[in-house]
Amino acid sequence: MKVIVVKNQLEGGKIGFDLLKEAIENGAKTLGLATGSTPVEFYNQVVNSDLDFTDMTSVNLDEYVGLDGTNDQSYRYFMNKHLFEEKPFKENFLPNGKAADLDAEVKHYDEIIAEHPIDWQILGIGQNGHIGFNEPGTPADITTHVVDLEESTIKANARFFESEADVPRQAISMGLASIMKSKNIVLMAYGKEKAEAVKGMIEGEVTVDLPASILQTRDNVTVIADEAAASLLSK
């Protein structure tokens, strides 16, 4: 696991962009994408670049259950706003949060991932150590699944909604096993509220209690953290 400490999110976004550009130059065709405040500056760098994605595919980590793509808090809406409208891809895949049969949607999304192996995956990390919406206690061998969101995750995401009561209680998430199949993984973390999770991910034991710690078990993982998020690291 390579750790890059940066001054702020702007510098982190630029480094993330450089890593993406290198991956594309080395033949990456399928990108695993994330949402939330963490990758916004990274997407700004991408949108303002001359990179062409018209021959590429994207596969997103997750989506809220109950929200369709026209809802401004859905992750499809987020991706359209921050990337897809400016940088069209050949294909974009996100879980269908409005699927009538969630079990069938989960199986369908596993099929999509199998058909489009991810070359380069971007991740954030939750305050409780989740990646995607894989909450503490998630088995390492799980693939796409429906998640009951932890109260800490609901509270953390409430800032994006009018009230905490409006935050969906479930999501469809790519599983830990799915994420770990990605050829290259770049995880970004910003802010002191992420420091405990970052320390546990990098220096703690590998445990289901902190899902991101599973990243210790494989190669080709780069962590980009600002000084606040990296402040508890011993080295």
Which helices and strands occur, and which strands form pairs?
Layout: E1 2-6, H1 9-25, E2 30-33, H2 40-47, E3 57-60, E4 62-64, H3 75-84, E5 91-93, H4 102-115, E6 120-123, E7 145-148, H5 151-157, E8 170-173, H6 176-180, E9 184-189, H7 195-203, E10 221-226
Parallel strand pairs: 1-10, 2-3, 2-6, 3-5, 6-9, 9-10
Antiparallel strand pairs: 4-8, 7-8
Helix pairs in contact: 1-2
Distance between the termini: 13 Å
Give the % helix. 25-40%
Number of helices: 7
Structural class by sheet pairing and helices: alpha/beta
Number of strands: 10
Task: Walk me through the structure.
Helices cover about 30% and strands about 20% of the residues. It is α/β, with parallel strands linked by helices and about 240 residues long. The strands form 2 sheets. Strands 1-10-9-6-2-3-5 form a 7-stranded parallel β-sheet, with helices on one face. Strands 4-8-7 form a 3-stranded antiparallel β-sheet, covered by helices on one side. α1 (about 10-25) crosses α2 (about 40-45). The protein is globular.
Identify the notable features of this structure and list them briefly.
7-stranded parallel β-sheet, 3-stranded antiparallel β-sheet, 10 strands, single chain, 18% strand, 235 residues, 30% helix, globular, 7 helices, alpha/beta
